[in-house]
């Protein structure tokens, strides 16, 4: 979680913002510069959102050893039940913010790959020698967006389907 929200997402947000500058400066070099700019802007926004969600998640994550370090032995004994309940509640908050950060990161990756795919399209229809290769590269990037979306959503969809089968009595 820390690697995603503190390293990968800020790095990818910076890349998306830099790419926005390139596309905005030379928009005539791209087939659909408006669509590229929209995808890259959404990607940057989602990556920054991931960082923010990760920040909110991190403040709710701590261990029982941390609690012991924060409170004296006597205070911890007196407040044992309250501290346990508070820790459990904070862990639920962490899990909620973690899921949001993961969703923002995944969404950012999907939209970034879509933007890359649009960047790779040949700027004009024609028969340039590299047109086939540019279309192939754009297809690979679009495929990466699809794979990212499927790969990221598959585990949760699988869990939901398994729960549904169990509730219906069909294991």
Automatic annotation (TrEMBL):
Transmembrane segments: 35-55, 102-121, 133-154
Keywords, sorted A to Z: Membrane, Transmembrane, Transmembrane helix
Superkingdom of this protein's organism: Bacteria
Protein name per UniProt: Uncharacterized protein
